[in-house]
Amino acid sequence: MKEGFYKELEILYKLIEEDQKELQRFYDILKNRTSILDDEIVELEYTVDDFLNMLGLDIDGESRLAAINRIVNLREDLLVQLFKQKGFDEEEVIEAKEKAYLWVADFYISRFEKILKKIEDEKLLTPFYREIIKGAHETGLAFSSWQSSWVAQIINGTNRELYRLFNGDEEKIFEMLNEKRLLDPGPEGCEGDRCYSVLRICDKGFERVSYAKAFEEEVKEVVKRVEKFIKRLHNYDDEVFNLKNEWIDYLSAIVTALKEEDPDLLISRWADVDRCWMKITSPVQIGHPLEYYEDRYRKAVALEWDIRVANPKFTVNERVNRIKYMFDKIFNEVAGAKQIDIYNNTLENLNRVQLYIGRPLFFYGAEFNGLFSAQVVPNDETVSKEYGKKIFAYADMILQTQKAKPPMKITKEVFGDNLAKKFREVFEKPDIWYKIYEITTIGHEYGHILWMDEDSETVMNKTGQFKNMEEFKATLGGLVSFFLAEEDDLWRYVLEDTVKRAVGLIAWMETSEVEPYYVEGLLHLTGLFSSGVLKFDKKLQTNLSKSGYEKLKEWYLKIYKKMAGEFYLPKRDAKEFLSMFVSKENGIYLPLDRQVREFTLYYWDLYKKIGRVVDK
């Protein structure tokens, strides 16, 4: 039975791959084409131009790239830059972003329903798992309808008002939220590390309101669909993985959590969802509300909902053993006997990780504003201490996307023609590319697990800067595990990837929901310049030699030990670490190092001018 299931899973996985290849053909619009190819992609051009007309934007190469980036990559940063250059004011940008979201949601839902029909027509998988996919899809439609009001109330409503009330002083906002206990409490009554409530202004000042009360109609609709989903599952058995009860318990816990109206119980309710979810180990997985990047103040959990499928041909990944070796070695160098609890907690979490390498099948809600390339969840460290974590990685999709994207003019302008071409050579060496992805991306997700216990994030986030430090720490976890056990002469590819990514992250300077990655890029740049790998004097100079790599490695090892021993183990506020490298000026982080700052501002200015120009 299981063998037949996995054969059909291979068919479904191939179906997803072909659908994503079709999507990536949008990039062919931007390439130099023969007349034959022109005929083949004319329909795609019509689609993109329809999108631009809907937004009132000119149809040209730069606009088309911004549109394709929004449609295919689900990223709105290029589009927002375009809105600003066209003179849109803040309200017009918000309105245009909402129009784009609704268009993209309709576009994908139409595609999902075609795939769903193929799954039903070809009777792929088992009746139970076809019902999982169908029920998750119908629930996802309700999450997508809810997304607009969630963004309007939290991101464009309360958060803008807080910013105005405190004259843009975000530290005072975090101070007020902590002092007035306006964050959702965890199970023990202490301040939690995320929220499932909305902040509202009232006569007394502010109050917390559960999602069930703040979005009454939307929540009722999601609950109704999940309850129908549960009812239908009762009609089938999971004959392959014997997880029927686990699936029903999980979905029932979601209903309970969504209906909860007491803000003081919300984190506990959703922790129960995560507990049930961790017991589901099938290759078909659902992703529920887990992350909280969008809301920078209270970390209200976003409306994620998706269906993920593991690659049936995936073989065992050994990265975790390298991570454990590194962690043990560094811990013994920087820690004392008092921190043994964090050591044990970390190793237990690493040993219990469930790793899923695959592709997204369908996605909804907040995920129409961007998919992750990898993810480690749940974020709830109490649940993780009991059950461990799941790591998801979309390696196949990421490689496919990177190959499809055209070369950009800014890459050639900054790095020169030879290096720009060299950066793309690895796309034609999939064996090497997957190894680099394992080190830098899967390693990053494992890196999140290290040095943490139940209250690390809460204690280190008093000024709201934990995520801005944590993303850098996570990436270093993967890199340092490689440094201490290098393999297959991969150092040159790791170095090139680090340089390319660090520079590219500057493009997110004004995209607030991904600020932690932008800040991470600035920290990497500080290391790259400090080690002499990069130099800047009106033009960027690179030293990608083994000696440059060794100096960078030395810098990373020093900083990682400092982060672990002097910040994570004693749980110092993240701002103290960040203040050694960056400062916030007019709402934007900039490097303290003069040369790094000059390059950052140079690249940002260049990005605004030619960041949407394809290299012909």
Structure report:
The chain has helices at 2-24, 35-55, 61-72, 77-85, 90-121, 127-165, 170-179, 211-214, 216-233, 244-259, 266-278, 319-334, 340-351, 381-387, 395-404, 409-415, 417-425, 430-449, 456-460, 466-483, 491-504, 515-530, 546-568, 574-578, 594-610; strands at 197-202, 205-210, 284-287, 304-310, 354-365, 374-377, 390-393, 534-537, 539-542, 582-585, 588-591. It has 616 residues and is α+β, with helices and mostly antiparallel strands. A five-stranded mixed beta sheet has the order 3-4-5-7-6. Helix 5 (90-121) runs antiparallel to helix 6 (127-165), helix 11 packs parallel to helix 14 and helix 21 packs across helix 22 (515-530). The longest helix is centred in the first third of the chain and has 39 residues, at 127-165.
Q: Which residue ranges are poorly predicted, with pLDDT under 50 across at least 5 consecutive positions?
A: none
Strand content: 5-15%
Report the sheet with the most strands, covering strand number, pairing sense and barrel closure.
5 strands, mixed
Strand order of the largest sheet: 3-4-5-7-6
On the 0 to 100 scale, the average pLDDT is 94
The rough form would be described as globular
Structural class: alpha+beta
What is the CA–CA distance across the termini?
52 Å
Number of helical segments with 4 or more residues:
25
Helix content: 55-70%
Number of strands: 11
**What is Rg?**
24 Å
